[in-house]
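I'll show a sample.
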Amino acid sequence: MNQDYIKPDNWSIIEEGFDAERVKSSESLFSIGNGAMGQRANFEEKYTGDSFQGSYIAGIYYPDKTKVGWWKNGYPEYFAKVLNAPNWIGIDIEINGENLDLNSCTSIKNFRRELNMKEGWYHRSFDATLKNGTEISVNVRRFLSLDLDEVGMINYEITPLNKDAKIIYKPYIDAGVTNEDANWDEKFWEPLKVKKSGNEAFVTAQTFKTHFEVTTFMQNSIWQNGENLSISPSAIDSLPDKIKFSYDVIVAQGQKSAIQKIGGYAVSLNHKNTLAAAEKAIQSALAKGYDQLLNDQIEAWAKIWEMSDITIDGDVKAQQGIRFNIFQLNQTYSGKDSRLNIGPKGFTGEKYGGSTYWDTEAYCIPFYMATKDQEVARNLLTYRYNQLDKAIENAQNNLGFKDGAALYPMVTMNGEECHNEWEITHEEIHRNGAIAFAIFNYHRFTGDNSYIPEKGLEVLIGIARFWHQRANLSKDKNQFVILGVTGPNEYENNVNNNFHTNYIAKWCINYTQEQIQKVALEFPLDHKRIVEKVQLSDSEIQQWKKVADNMYFPKSEELGIYLQQDGFLDKDLVPVAGLDPSQRPINQKWSWDRVLRSPYIKQADVLQSFYFFEEHFSKEELKRNFEYYESFTVHESSLSPCVHSIQAAALDKMDMAYAFYLRTSRLDLDDYNKEVKEGCHITSMAGTWMSIVEGFGGMRVKEDKLHFSPKIPKQWKAYSFKINFRNQILTVAVSQNKTTFSVNGDTDLALVVNGQAVMATKLEIA
């Protein structure tokens, strides 16, 4: 834990008291989104202190040319950047001739922020004294509509406290924005046109290179004591990329003045005429009005929480943590559009480019699969299917592979590889396995037999071909090896025979063979179509089989563990407990050379295989490997604590499981990795859900049935969650002395609980 200013609350994230040192962290934590767009919690009014301005639109990116000291063959030409989108929230405010700026006020009292997760809105309030002596009280509420997902609303209220005030509201929209992480300090937006009409304004701009067109819009109304004044701007400032209106009002001491601002984006991904779409979005918002839109927002979030909520009784910080994670996941991805995916920072920052990583397949799909309709998870798989041709091109053009072998990119926006670190881009190839595992996991959970013959089998064949060509026969070992890789532990690069990589390669080949045979039997027309399309032969499949059947796995017979890679035991094996705390986190304290030579593990590596393929190993094997590798794990990846929490629970190490759960659930709220100001760790938040459902709940899917082995931390009185399993909603409620399973409907659901087969409509198990 590196910060502790967020107030414990079951349903809200709350900050009290203004501290300029916390502004950037809070901008991340109080971010809002609706799946189509999102924004950091920047102040609407001018702020001259340290801030990280950020608004983002789903699917809009820029190919920022890669910046490296020297070029290597096959290097990605660009690193995709989620773009800082035009700013529509801005409202400069002048009070009795002075700008409102919290960085220059003589006093700030009663400062409070709240992110209400239950209802989906962000609120900020404070009392301030300006340098001119005017005292004011400010209340601001902002939300991004789930129902009208191109629209956001701001209600900004000001009450003069000690004198009458002339207030000038100056709302604006501005396309002259830049990214904090631009490689070459380029401008990403080219303004095309501006338009103003009454209280409405529009700035249309397009991205350079990618030519996404966006019309940013605003509509303003000025209110006094709850009544719309129906006034027009007193002045208009217009530039090629910015429009600012001015509204002058005289407000008596103690009277409430407000500006309501509608804003948002219409984008060419969805509209041929973005200006017309923006005008329509404003009219839709005006037809409902602020109050109705807010009520709709509350109702929409109530429906989301009805299915996705996890309740925890007796531990407010744990409850707040899981709801924060679930809230951010639902803000980031709605599942409506298979062209979209989930960036590691979502709409909260620019680090990692906002692109798609293997995080989606390994960590996010289980959450969306179990808390939404299965079409949401299917859309995430379809995203990869639609980019299969690009994955084949990547393997062919960048690595010299042939015959339809596919290497999915480490990082992508459109299917092209756009990661700018060689040792990750071309060596962290286990992501191919995660994509195949997601297909298996989806089929296992949903029972959807149509996806693999329709789309998934082509992906699996491309991946199996990659593993066949990537492995080579070692004459010394007389086995197949995979050399020069980076496993999930990114604190080791260019290693030979990473256990997880080799294991998942073998599994991918075997699983693909099984599915080819199954599709041939059950979907012969699809089988014929696919075999002809990809030119697959029986002899090729037999060549794959030789690789899978003779894969090499490094191990230590003495320790009874699989080795993370060849030579792991040659390291200076000092456990993390022997590290000087002042040297943590090592990725911020040590040279990269020192990190690479150390035994320290960023996240689950060998243990990632034990998580994916738990049934392949005995409980004793898990225990030995877990105890050995956890002692060297520094958990400096956001993806690390959740896997360790699940496995600790499986081993009845409940104190450890709880500690890891608390870390993953409050990773950002408590800023464990000292980086929350850069944005929240969205994809790892799905791991928090997994820590409860798969960890404490012990949920697994085996032979078409849900299995549970419920456990409960001693710190909790009870917890509960819901699962949408094959269109039956199951509620699981666990207390210290019993577990209750309830099915929504009249049909019983077959379960296996602690190894015993049971039928559940409403079932209590002591």
Remarks:
- The CA atoms of residues 385 and 459 lie 6 Å apart.
